[in-house]
Amino acid sequence: MGLLFESLFLDVGILVACVLSVVYAYSKWSFSYWKKRNVPYVEPCFPFGNFGEVALVRKHFGYFMRDIYTRLEGHRYGGVYMLNSPLLLLRDPDLIKDVLVKDFSTFHDRGVYMNEEVEPLTGNLFSLPGKRWRNLRVKLSPTFTSGKMKMMFQRLVECGDELKLCLENIAGRGEVIEVKDILGRFSTDVISSCAFGIECNCLKNENAEFRQWGRKIFQPSIRQIIMAILSNTAPIVLDKLKLSTFDPNVSKYFRKMVQETVEYREMNNVKRNDFMQLLIQLKQKGSLDSEQGAEDRSDEEFSGIGETADGLSMNSLAAQAFVFFLAGFETSSTTMTFCLYELSVNPDIQERLRTEIDMVLEKHDGKLSYEAIQEMSYLDKVVSETLRKYPPISGLMRECSKPYKIPGTDIVLDTRMRVLIPVIGLHHDPKYYPEPHRFDPERFSEEEKQKRHHYVYLPFGEGPRICIGMRFGLMQTKVGLVSLLSKYQFSVSKKTPVPLVFDPKLFILAPAGGMWLQIKKRSME
Predict the structure, then answer these.
(1) Which CATH number fits domain 31-521: 1.10.630.10, 3.90.380.10, 1.10.150.240, 1.20.1250.20?
(2) Residue 82: enclosing H or E segment and its boundaries?
(3) CA 219, CA 222: separation in Å to the nearest integer?
(4) Percentage of residues in the chain with pLDDT exceeding 90?
(5) What's the pLDDT tens digit per position in 459-491?
């Protein structure tokens, strides 16, 4: 019996060794992809290619993007590897413009894995490819016009008032607080109300059910890491095994909640000024009243697409509401967090911003209105500089839909080759932003913006696939900041993380260990 087991273990060992040898040999062959094409590249390592420290959760994706960008200094582009899959990283803003705008018909897809049969929530605007994306984009664009933003504005102000009230006693005692969690609760209240039509009152109850389920989306896990790797390198495995990239329980909760909300409103003829109401109208009619066709249709490849009167299915409606939450919750709360950090480190900038807020609010009889926010030009500069220094999404991805010759070269990219645009690398390049680690809102004066290439500032992407919710995200961020700064002062404390370290477990740029700042009530002179 002992000899049998010994022989079995030997056979298994030989099999494993053979498999590993084949995998290693295949990877080494794959790693020669860019070298064979005379494309400058960053030397990969088996088995993760250039993504080892990210895959092993040792380094945040943002640090990785910045490092790769720097290592390719002097080149317009360069090759990298995600496991054994080659990707092309672009450094030249003119090439970036080509990919995002000029040659958009070749790069209209993000190359994001999706399978609606297994996971209906993946059928959202962010993930959809080609004509299906265009069709949905045309339908959804009118939901983010300035008119619709004004319609939802009062709800944001009410959430801002709750935020002020929540911090009043704490500020009165001059306590040190973890602002990222509080701002996350504020964002959750805003999104739950505007996207899902429910009042979850997270600022009053941090353990609200909606908040708990929302947290699970962003909580890092081994499963998430494995799914991310498979979706990027071996999507066929997910298809064959019918595996969802989302936690099935989270998906079930959000879809059930959306369905119940929609059915209740339709049965009881309940209407509200929120995103959910606009989605219901799209479900019922296929377009919004008198606004169909608001999207620019200059792309020849997509002309005429999206004219169908078909409405959204319930699953599609749920997917759009879900991605609205996904995109708007963490990005806005971390932007406000980083902004308050920089204002605490730079009290002179905080005071200048507060002076502007006071002046504009006084002009509007002390009321925060949509028009008042638009008049706060220095606030816009401060938020822009925050997004420059801390872009929530460190890089953009696009995928070739057909062979593409890189302008000015003999290099031809294969169909389905993915192109990586290192947003954080561009934002921290001293060539475009002198002393990039210095927080300077004046970089976004009209005069300074005119000096820079337009495609070296990409916090929301650019071109036809620019973030559709950009206006809402900025509005939410600004309302949150004005609500706080009109009443409170923020400063660094012994617990404030200086210098900042990004949490490697999260894809979104976020401070490790939270953000601890001291809050005090303003001294009114």
Answers:
(1) 1.10.630.10
(2) strand 77-82
(3) 10
(4) 55
(5) 999 999 999 999 999 999 999 999 999 999 999
